[in-house]
Amino acid sequence: MVSETGGNQSVERASAVLRAFTPGRPALRVSDVAAEVGLGVSTTSRLLATLEAAELVQRDPVSQLYELGPAVLTMAGIALNNDPIYRQARPVAQRLAWELGLGANVAVRRGASLFYLLNVEGQLAQKSFSLMGQLNPLHATGMGKSLLLDTTAQQRAELLGAEPLPGFTSHTHTTLDALGADLAAAAARGYTTEIEELALGRACIAAPVRDHTGEIAAAISLSGALSAIALDEREAELGALVVEAADTVSIGLGYLGPAHTPSPARP
C-alpha cells in the first residue's frame, strides 16, 4: 500500500504535469514537461504513461507530442453542467450571440483574475477556439470591472497589488484612482465598458450578475471588434441589453432585487 505521503506526492506530481499544458503550449514533448515541472525525464515519462492510460493525456501518433486527453473534457463538462451560474447563463448568452452576432461571455472571479465559464460567438465575432477556463485581468476587461463594482478602494488595492497595474495597451488603466473613477461611473449606469484596454481593435460591454444574497457572483458581456460592436453609436442600446441579460441570470440564481444590493463601488 502506498503511504499517505507518497500518495500525496504522486497526486501533486500528476497535477503539475497536467498543468504544464497551457493555451500557449497545448502539445509538449516529454522533455518539455519534465523541464516545466522540475522532474527527471524518466520520472516524467512514467507519469505521462500513467496519465495516458487514464485518458487524461494522449500522444499524437505522428508527432509523438503529448496533449490533454478526452477524460479532461469529460470532467470539464461535468463541472460546468454542475455549476448553477453556467446553467442559468448558457441560454441567455446563446440568445444574445444569436440575435446580435457578437460574442457573449460569462465569467467569475478567481483571485485577481476573471475566469471564463462560457463564451458563445455570434456571426460577427467568430473564433476558432474556446475561452472557457482561461483567465484575464480584472482591471483591463469589461467583465473584470463588473466583478469589481462592489469593492472599496482599499479592497481593490489589496486585490490588484501595487501600482502601476499591468498595462496591455495605451488605454489600460494602470492606476487605482483611474480604475476607481471608471467603476464609480459604471456603478451609476449599471454596466461597465472596455475599449481597447486589453487588446487593440476590441471592445466589450458587461454587467454584474448577483446571487440570492445580493452579492456579485459573475459577469456577462458582449464583445467584438470595434466595427462590429460600435460602442460609440450603440452603447445605450447594448448597455440595456446586457443589463437585462444579467438581471435574467440573477433572477435565476435567486436574486430578489435592488433592496438586497450592497453599496455601489467607491473610487
UniProtKB/TrEMBL annotation:
Domain annotation IclR-ED: ranges: 71-255
Pfam families cross-referenced by the UniProt entry: HTH_IclR, IclR_C
Keyword tags: DNA-binding, Glycerol metabolism, Transcription, Transcription regulation
Alphabetized GO MF terms: DNA binding; DNA-binding transcription factor activity
GO BP terms in the entry: glycerol metabolic process; negative regulation of DNA-templated transcription
Transmembrane segments: none
Limits of the HTH iclR-type domain: 8-70
Stored SUPFAM superfamilies: GAF domain-like, Winged helix' DNA-binding domain
Protein's job: May be an activator protein for the gylABX operon.
Name of protein: Glycerol operon regulatory protein
Organism: Amycolatopsis dendrobii
